């Protein structure tokens, strides 16, 4: 269709000078509406000319008005109401015409903005017209990303306010599809520089600090430097071979914002985007004849990058892009991504768009494509701004430009004509549309229909998935996760399940981000739902993540295979393409095909089983509740089960290998009790009809909380009364309590992102303690809680620790979040908070949190609001359910007479790393307090001490007791120094009652001497928890350089009088640790003296230990030579007392016959608990050849399962003959270990820390540093390497500072 010239009657009048000054942007739109729609004289019957007539009348009524004229507001509203009525009449005959409807909505919006009611203005004031032409903050805050149009006239740029020319235009585009924002005209560019036309070949040249086009007749103003290299910009001709004038856009660091126009002679368009370093270049071709169609050129200001919200654009500054109707004038401000020091730090652009890459909007005049929104054609695309060299691409999203080809630097085909015909689809001219690790937010999965068919003979699987998606932004791309899958087919269906395209869609892979991009030639429209269908296949994984194979051996020696899943945190993508992030919750309908000899299990119960072909059965599971992908699970096996039902009717089943079926009964009892307890405690029914627990023979971690199908290592689920110890029983109970707690904390309410994984794991860890204490009080789980918090203190007192809530983006970073901080520290601060708020308040807050965020995702703040009984204003229910935020500040919890801001308090525990040290001293009746950061690797005398303390302050809920009263006193410490009045009569003070608080206490100025005296004279004046806490703190302070080692040794001198096992074992653990470290250093005399001291002073305690199975964990020790001989003579049929069996085996493993006999028993035993006991004993051998053989077997995974290799390496490293052997093994097999267990996993972390934890001399430290340097790329990603180095440095300094003191102290005691 030819365009001869502007043909609308009244155009000259519309362009009159008196109006151009104020309303030119609107007039240009009207010209485009009329002139772009047809050729020839306007016909009154057409909608275009009706709109022109409305506009002409409006201009007549307002041409004499300015905002400064009296009565402006009244007259303006009168004209506006007439214009609104006129356009609405026209719009009725223009159904489906977005522009006309936008005009109607825009006028209505403007009338609202100007208070123009039907009956007249509600206010006669008008100054705000000049200053606030468009305020869309309230209207755009929930809007999705759309294109936005900004009006501008260059002739007016200098002499008039920028707000005045745009306010009417702003109102006209009130529709969210074409909305503008306030203040958008304050950043308009200066008059762009126009370069002359040229037809010579164009190159894009990289120079220092700039990228510029070089041509023979380039204006001197563009000369930014000497050309150093160059690549051609490809500007392929159209199908008709037309050629045209080519001009270039360029970007320069030194002169951002300059541009020249781009012309081409083809009815289609080619946009070439090239990234050179941090800079972008574009080349565009458009019809040359358009330049001849009009005489005038007028730029309209457009908003680049999609403009998701006016407020954000105003804050960040938009990137302008002028538009010329006859051609395409481009202007681009500096667009480069800054360099950031942290991998996890997002650029301002990424923060601006909620994690999405930049979205570029290019709008072209009606003359180019009149059928696309009548006056514009839009090319939308994702613009990758990652600072690396490479070609980029824009993708068409205009509904009538489905086939538009956007070529990169080396075009493989000519661009398609913009006719709506479908192009041949392939990946040759496509590049991956997404640059970030996290997925875009504009595609939301709603429902997965997943079919899987594993083949346990070929060890492979095939499958298909149909994902119902909700599109929240117009797009051609669907980006989701996939890792290691062979995608054989991808299609997109509409809501009626009709194919959008008959062709298989191209699938692009980004392996480094584990993502795939699927390109649709048809635009997926915002607000619509579609179905993405993908077929795929893969091998069953060899490791422990994704959909992997496992095997077990029967008593007859037969090896059987099963297939199981483990998806947390980022491995669901290894089993099926999915949106593998916790916030993308969806429903799942799963089907699994299998051979008849197997069963299939999944999250939900089977509703139907059908035979499909050749005897293959298909189990169809019920649709799941809404959940995250990492909770999906399926297992194909030949296991047997036991089943029971909870009081609320939930069916509970325990699955295990057929010959281990008898070991499942205790777990069934525990699971039923735990589900009943949690339903009552949380006041929320378990939402699924069944809960399966299954023991997987090969399992890397302890267990996994998949909703409705929790998976376990065999040692974490199976209990054999004949071989399992009381410790094993406690462990099984704790793990089941942990995983079932996750059904609420983690599954029902899930953290928004992995940075807050502690909301899952910290709670589940703490609920172990609460649930076991309530259901199995005889197991005395409170003793376990102390050890858990001691472990957290040890980790958190390194400088390489991290905040509980920490950034984590890539899979390696995410895996490292599953550590002591998330689990143990998270549980300990919850324990502190529970005692602080009281049990009832804590429990009701948790119930409120779970109710409010059920089937949703939550943040830290949501928990604090729930615990503090606060809510948002819209949720406010007069205090019955929660307080409003304003009320909450008034009704803050009262603690020790002080008002508390719970959020501020808990942020000091979750958003900063480390643990506080509270130093206590007496001054008359006052108790003086000081808080510092507790570090075991930086001493107060070190130059780095002051720097390491900067910025750390905690809100510490102190508790204390004195000899003057049995009352537990409370005090909230929120400053670096503080004081408490306790009175002159008090002789001793114990801070941190029962260690309910997460902090270390140091008693200065003779305070430790007072504690030592108290324990030696009347240790029962303190609870066993307080006594244990004092022992722990004293030895931690020795390591940190705050207390001499002799003071700590004096403190535990009372232990020969101790009657409670927990403080006794705590003290003995430190002594045995010293003994082991000294043994590694070949200090034979010191080792002998320390061993003699332990036996002499604790002989009475040792002699009290019994051989029976009665009593708690800590009451069983023995000397076992004769017992092992008896066991051997019985051919292993003698049942040893279970809690001394490990000691018996360890003694027996010292000779060749005993070691071989134990290995044989290990291979044939059906008890995982017994195998674990024997494996430990085998590592106690002093024969390095045997130790090396064990390590090699663990690496091979046949004699010893690979799942036990980490434990095996650490146990060998504990052996004084094996600690260097284990380290050499790790160095030699590092690549294999990483491949087997994945970088960042807890297994790799345990191996690194476990094999180096006993090193204590500078030569060992140097060796470890050199190895980490040799694997620098991997080591730099691991926090464990920093912990290992700090731990060795701590050991080195401990010996330098304490060795002689220890030697002298022992010499005195041995006399």
Automatic annotation (TrEMBL):
Residues 666-871 form the Peptidase M1 membrane alanine aminopeptidase domain. Residues 1-42 form the signal peptide. Residues 214-326 form the Repulsive guidance molecule C-terminal domain. GO terms for cellular component: endoplasmic reticulum membrane; extracellular space. SUPFAM superfamilies: Leukotriene A4 hydrolase N-terminal domain, Metalloproteases ('zincins'), catalytic domain. Residues 139-160 have a biased composition (Basic residues). Keywords: Adaptive immunity, Aminopeptidase, Autocatalytic cleavage, Disulfide bond, Endoplasmic reticulum, Glycoprotein, Hydrolase, Immunity, Membrane, Metal-binding, Metalloprotease, Protease, Signal, Signal-anchor, Transmembrane, Transmembrane helix, Zinc. It is found in: Endoplasmic reticulum membrane. The record marks 823 as: Transition state stabilizer. Monomer. May also exist as a heterodimer; with ERAP2. Interacts with RBMX. Belongs to the peptidase M1 family. This is Endoplasmic reticulum aminopeptidase 1.
């Amino acid at each position: 269709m030819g365009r001869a010239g502007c043909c609308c009657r009244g155009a000259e009048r519309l362009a009159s000078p008196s109006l151009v000054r104020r309303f030119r942007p609107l007039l240009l739109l009207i010209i485009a509406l009329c002139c772009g729609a047809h050729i020839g004289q306007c016909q009154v019957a057409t909608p275009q000319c009706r709109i022109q007539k409305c506009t002409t009348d409006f201009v007549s009524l307002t041409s004499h008005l300015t905002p400064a004229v009296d009565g402006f507001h009244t007259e303006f509203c009168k004209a506006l109401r007439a214009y609104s009525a006129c356009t609405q009449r026209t719009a009725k005959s223009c159904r489906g015409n977005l522009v006309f409807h936008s005009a109607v909505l825009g006028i209505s919006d403007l009338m609202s903005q100007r208070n123009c009611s039907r009956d007249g203005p509600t206010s006669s004031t008008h100054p705000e017209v000049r200053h606030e032409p468009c305020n869309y903050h309230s209207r755009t805050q929930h809007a999705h990303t759309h294109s936005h149009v900004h009006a501008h006239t260059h002739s007016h740029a200098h002499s008039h306010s920028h707000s005045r020319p745009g306010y009417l235009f702003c109102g006209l585009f009130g529709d969210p599809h074409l909305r503008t924002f306030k203040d958008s005209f304050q950043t308009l560019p200066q008059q762009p520089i126009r370069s002359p036309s040229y037809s010579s070949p164009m190159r894009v040249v990289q120079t220092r600090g700039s990228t510029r086009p070089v041509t023979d007749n380039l204006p001197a103003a563009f000369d930014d430097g000497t050309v150093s290299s160059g690549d051609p910009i490809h500007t392929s001709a159209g199908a008709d071979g037309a050629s045209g004038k080519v001009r270039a856009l360029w970007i320069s660091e030194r002169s951002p914002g300059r541009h020249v126009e781009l012309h081409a002679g083809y009815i289609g368009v080619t946009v070439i985007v090239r990234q050179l370093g941090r800079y972008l270049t574009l080349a565009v071709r458009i019809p040359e004849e358009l330049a001849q169609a009009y005489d005038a050129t007028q730029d309209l200001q457009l908003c680049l990058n999609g403009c998701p919200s006016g407020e954000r654009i105003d804050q960040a500054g938009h990137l302008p892009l002028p538009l010329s109707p006859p051609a395409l004038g481009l202007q681009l401000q500096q667009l480069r991504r800054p360099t950031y020091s942290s991998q996890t730090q997002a650029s301002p652009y990424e923060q601006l768009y909620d994690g999405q890459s930049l979205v570029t909007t290019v709008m072209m005049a009606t003359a180019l494509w009149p059928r696309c929104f009548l006056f514009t054609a839009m090319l939308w695309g994702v613009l990758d701004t990652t600072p690396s060299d490479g070609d980029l691409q824009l993708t068409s999203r205009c509904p009538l430009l489905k086939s538009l080809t956007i070529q990169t630097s080396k075009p493989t085909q000519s661009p398609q004509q913009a006719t709506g015909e479908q192009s041949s689809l392939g990946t040759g001219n496509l590049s991956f549309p997404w640059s970030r690790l996290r997925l875009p937010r504009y595609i939301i999965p709603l429902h997965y229909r997943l079919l899987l068919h594993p083949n346990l003979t070929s060890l492979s699987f095939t499958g298909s998935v149909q994902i119902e998606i909700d599109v929240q932004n117009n797009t051609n791309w669907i980006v989701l996760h996939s890792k290691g899958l062979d995608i054989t087919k991808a299609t997109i269906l509409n809501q009626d399940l009709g194919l959008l395209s008959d062709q298989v869609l191209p699938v692009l892979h980004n392996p480094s981000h584990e993502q795939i991009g699927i390109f649709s030639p048809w635009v997926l429209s915002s607000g619509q739902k579609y179905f993405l269908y993908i077929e795929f296949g893969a091998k069953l994984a060899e490791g422990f993540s994704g959909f992997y194979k496992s095997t077990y051996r029967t008593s007859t020696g037969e090896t059987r295979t099963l297939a199981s899943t483990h998806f947390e945190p980022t491995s669901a993508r290894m089993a099926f393409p999915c949106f593998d992030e916790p916030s993308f919750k969806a429903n799942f309908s799963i089907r699994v095909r299998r051979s008849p000899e197997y069963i299939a299990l999944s999250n939900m119960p089977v509703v139907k089983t059908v035979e499909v072909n050749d005897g293959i059965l298909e189990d169809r599971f019920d649709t799941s509740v809404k959940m995250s992908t990492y909770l999906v699970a399926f297992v194909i096996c030949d296991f047997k089960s036991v089943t029971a039902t909870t009081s609320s009717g939930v069916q509970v089943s325990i699955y295990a290998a057929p010959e281990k079926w008898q070991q499942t009964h205790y777990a069934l009892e525990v699971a039923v009790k735990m589900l009943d307890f949690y339903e009552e405690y949380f006041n929320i029914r378990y939402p699924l009809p069944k809960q399966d627990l299954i023991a997987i023979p090969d399992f890397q971690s302890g267990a996994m909380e998949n909703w409705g199908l929790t998976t376990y290592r065999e040692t974490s689920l199976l209990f054999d009364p004949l071989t399992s110890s009381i410790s094993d029983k406690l462990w099984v109970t704790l793990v089941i309590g942990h995983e079932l707690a996750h059904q609420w904390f983690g599954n029902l309410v899930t953290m928004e992102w992995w940075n807050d994984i502690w909301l899952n794991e910290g709670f589940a860890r703490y609920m172990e303690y609460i649930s076991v204490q309530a259901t199995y009080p005889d197991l005395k789980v409170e003793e376990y809680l102390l050890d858990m918090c001691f472990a957290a203190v040890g980790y958190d007192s390194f400088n390489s620790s991290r905040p509980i809530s920490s950034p984590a983006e890539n899979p390696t970073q995410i895996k490292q979040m599953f550590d002591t901080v998330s689990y143990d520290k998270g549980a300990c601060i919850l324990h502190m908070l529970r005692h602080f708020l009281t049990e009832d308040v804590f429990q009701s807050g948790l119930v409120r949190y779970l109710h409010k965020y059920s089937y949703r995702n939550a943040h830290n703040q949501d928990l604090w609001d729930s615990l503090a009984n606060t809510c948002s204003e819209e949720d406010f229910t007069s205090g019955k359910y929660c307080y409003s935020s304003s009320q909450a500040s008034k009704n803050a919890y009262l603690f020790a007479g002080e008002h508390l801001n719970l959020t501020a308090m808990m942020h000091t525990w979750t958003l900063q790393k480390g643990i506080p040290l509270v130093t206590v001293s007496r001054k008359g009746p006052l108790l003086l307090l000081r808080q510092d950061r507790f570090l075991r690797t930086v001493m107060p005398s070190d130059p780095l001490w002051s720097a390491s303390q900067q910025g750390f302050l905690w809100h510490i809920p102190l508790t204390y007791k004195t000899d003057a009263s049995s009352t537990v006193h409370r005090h909230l410490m929120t400053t670096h120094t503080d004081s408490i009045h306790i009175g002159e009569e008090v002789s001793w003070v114990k801070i941190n009652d029962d260690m309910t608080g997460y902090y270390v206490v140091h008693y200065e100025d003779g305070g430790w001497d007072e504690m030592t005296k108290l324990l030696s004279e009347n240790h029962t004046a303190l609870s066993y928890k307080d006594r244990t806490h004092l022992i722990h703190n004293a030895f931690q302070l020795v390591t940190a350089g705050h207390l001499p080692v002799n003071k700590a040794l004096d403190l535990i001198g009372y232990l020969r009088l101790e009657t409670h096992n927990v403080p006794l074992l705590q003290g003995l653990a430190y002594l045995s640790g010293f003994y082991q470290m000294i043994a590694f250093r070949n200090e034979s005399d010191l080792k002998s003296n320390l061993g003699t001291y332990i036996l002499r002073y604790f002989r009475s305690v040792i002699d009290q230990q019994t051989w029976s199975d009665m009593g708690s964990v800590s009451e069983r020790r023995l000397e076992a030579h004769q017992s092992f001989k008896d066991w051997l003579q019985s051919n292993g049929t003698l049942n040893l007392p279970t809690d001394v069996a490990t000691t018996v085996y360890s003694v027996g493993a010292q000779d060749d016959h005993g070691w071989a006999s134990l290995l044989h028993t290990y291979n044939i035993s059906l008890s995982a608990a017994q195998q674990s006991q024997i494996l430990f004993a085998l590592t106690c051998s002093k024969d390095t050849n045997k130790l090396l053989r064990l390590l090699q077997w663990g690496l091979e995974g046949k004699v010893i399962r690979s799942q036990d290799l980490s434990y095996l390496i650490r146990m060998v490293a504990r052996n004084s003959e094996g600690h260097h052997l284990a380290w050499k093994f790790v160095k030699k097999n590092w690549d294999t270990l990483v491949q087997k267990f994945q970088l960042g996993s807890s297994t790799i972390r345990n191996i690194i820390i476990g094999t180096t934890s006993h090193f204590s001399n500078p030569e060992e430290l140097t060796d470890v540093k050199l190895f980490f340097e040799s694997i620098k790329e991997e080591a730099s990603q691991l926090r464990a390497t920093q912990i290992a180095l700090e731990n060795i440095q701590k050991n080195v300094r401990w010996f330098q500072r304490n060795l002689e003191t220890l030697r002298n102290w022992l010499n005195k005691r041995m006399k």
